[in-house]
Design brief:
The chain is of the alpha+beta class. The chain contains two helices and two strands.
């Protein structure tokens, strides 16, 4: 099992089905894939052996759409 800091967004299961288009536009205003200093960690819990995002879904979608290869630090 990889170290939690080595996880990519593809390693995480979302826990919600929809995100707000308005929130995504807001995240896209500040998100820069080359500078993750403003990218808060995505909280993750283990649920039946699956790593599940408990928050940060909009940030995760913004990162995927921007082509970010790795997730931010995961808590």
């Amino acid at each position: 099992m990889p170290d939690i800091c080595d996880l990519t967004l593809k390693d995480l299961q979302p826990s919600q089905f929809y995100i707000s288009e308005r929130k995504l536009r807001g995240v896209n205003e500040w998100f820069r894939p080359e500078d993750l200093s403003n990218f808060e960690p995505i909280p993750v819990k283990m649920l039946d052996g699956i790593r599940v995002m408990t928050d940060g879904h909009t940030r995760a979608v913004a990162a995927v759409l921007a082509g970010a290869a790795r997730s931010s630090p995961v808590m």
